[in-house]
Amino acid sequence: MTRDVAITGYLLVLVLGLVLFLLPRRWPDIWVPLSEITGMLWENRAARLTLVLFCWWFGWHFLMDG
Amino acid sequence: MRVASAPGLKSLFVAGVQWWTVTMAQDSRAGRVGSAVQSRLTTGSLAVLVLAGGFHLGRGAPVDGATYLALAAIIFISEHQGSKQSERSGLRQWPALTATGPWLWVAVVLLGTALAMLPLGNGLAIALLALGALMVLLAWRQPARRSRSDHVHRNAVRRTFLAWSLLVLYLCAWELGMFFSDHYHPQGASTYPPLTDLVEPAFQQPFTRWLATVTWLGACALVLRARRGKETVGEP
Question: For B66-85, what is the mean pLDDT?
Fold first, then answer.
């Protein structure tokens, strides 16, 4: 039961993320695509490299543990 | 090297997201990305890297900690010594992942297969560290700055950014809640599994390990290709 609650919380993130992803297609004047947001972060080198390192770290972490 | 569900890293991620939320919200109100905003982004990112590295070292993950701290040092030195001139001159000089052909995905599958299936031993750590260094190198090049004409919709940008930030903050809060609930629950582990514990089994069985590794490498390639396909020569 408690495990289901935990997983439901993560599934909610997926659902809400999908909604936010699709909103700009329906109301482009109110919402902008996710690529617009990530592009703003991507223009800063430190932020960009931090994102890349976190992305790499996930693979490092799980592969070395496995 | 084992730092499963490191709470420090998650806390730092939350702090980083909060930093970006405030910074970019201010940016949206201003209607432009100025040097002050860029400076705050750089400082915040460096703080996240240093704190993450410190936590990893403190939790007995020296390689992880050294990796974060090394990147922080490299960025700090680069920003300290860098200038707008060097930024411009470096715009088109660094390599970047601009490939769009199928060979990229073939390479992702082949590399993922090797990393997941071959008995590399200590070579796995070396290969992953080399891959990390390559990713940093590919992400180093400063992309051409975009036109600011799209900030006519700055309210939409601000609204969207805040919505995504709230979602990420919720994810971080949930992850932290699950971690501490699971960690201190009297019935033991896996009562409230954090996301890392839910994902980790995918790297245990051969096929799922291969699939997860290829998926991870594919995601890395997509991140590195972000905006590269649209990159045009312009004012930095």
Answer: 83
| A37 lies in the same domain as A66 | yes
Asked whether the beta carbons of residue B139 and residue A20 sit closer than 8 angstroms, the reply is no
**Domain ranges, residue A65:** 32-66
Q: What is the pLDDT of residue B20?
A: 54
Give the best residue of A13, A26, A40, A51 to mutate against chain B (max B CB count within 10 A): A40
Return the sign of the alpha-carbon dihedral for residues B198, B204, B207, B209.
positive
Question: Which of A65, A10, A1 shows the shortest CA–CA distance to B6?
Answer: A65
Three-class SS state of B212? helix
pLDDT tens per residue, range B181-196: 776 776 666 667 777 7
CA distance to partner chain A, nearest, from residue B216 (Å): 6
Q: Do A40 and A24 belong to one domain?
A: no
Residues 36-65 of A with CB under 8 A from B: 36-65
B93: three-class secondary structure by DSSP: coil
C-alpha angle A64/B1/B2, rounded to 5°?
80
B184: amino acid identity, one letter: Y
| Dist. CA A62–CA B8, nearest whole Å | 17
